[in-house]
Amino acid sequence: MQKYMIEIYRAYENGLPIVGPTYLAKSLQISKSSAQQALKNLAEKGYGEYIERKGFLINERGLEEAKKTVKKHRLLESFLADIFSLDAASACNEASKIDSYASENLINLIEKKFGYEHCPCGHKIPK
Questions:
Q1: Are 56 and 5 in contact (CB under 8 A)?
Q2: Secondary structure (3-state) at 118
Q3: In whole angstroms, what separates CA 100 from the centre of its chain?
Q4: Fewest beta carbons less than 10 Å away: which of 30, 59, 60, 73?
Q5: CA-CA distance, 92 to 99, in Å (whole number)?
């Protein structure tokens, strides 16, 4: 679920209010049918509405969850880039492998200790 929420939030940041299966499939390099099912699952979990032939429209609950997910990912990216001198792409790749396992406590510690405002790619870290 986290990788889908991250991509939906990225689309939202870029002014794309509805995320379709084609967009998600291309972004995550998955099949269109897998992307469509993921979007429908997110809608069933109450994170937004799936509109046939259009895509997923995130709601406030979904936006809050997506912000938390993106914040965690971007803070880990920043930490990994800073501590291990990783380039932005490597930091993102490594953060993707561990972000679902990082506790809120760890994320809060990283946020307080380092005060990162942007990830290595230059994206703002949500508050």
A1: no
A2: strand
A3: 11
A4: 60
A5: 10
Closest Cα to residue 119, out of 4, 1, 9?
9
In angstroms, how far is the first alpha carbon of the chain from the final one? 21
* Host domain of residue 78: 70-114
Q: Could you list the pLDDT tens digit for every one of the 127 residues in the chain? A: 889 999 999 999 999 989 999 999 999 999 999 999 999 999 999 999 999 999 999 999 999 999 999 999 999 999 999 999 999 999 999 999 999 999 999 999 999 999 999 999 999 999 8
Q: Single out the residue in 58, 85, 105 at which a domain terminates.
A: 58
**DSSP element (H, E) containing 126:** none
Give the type of residue at 78. Answer: S
Residue 16's CATH number: 1.10.10.10
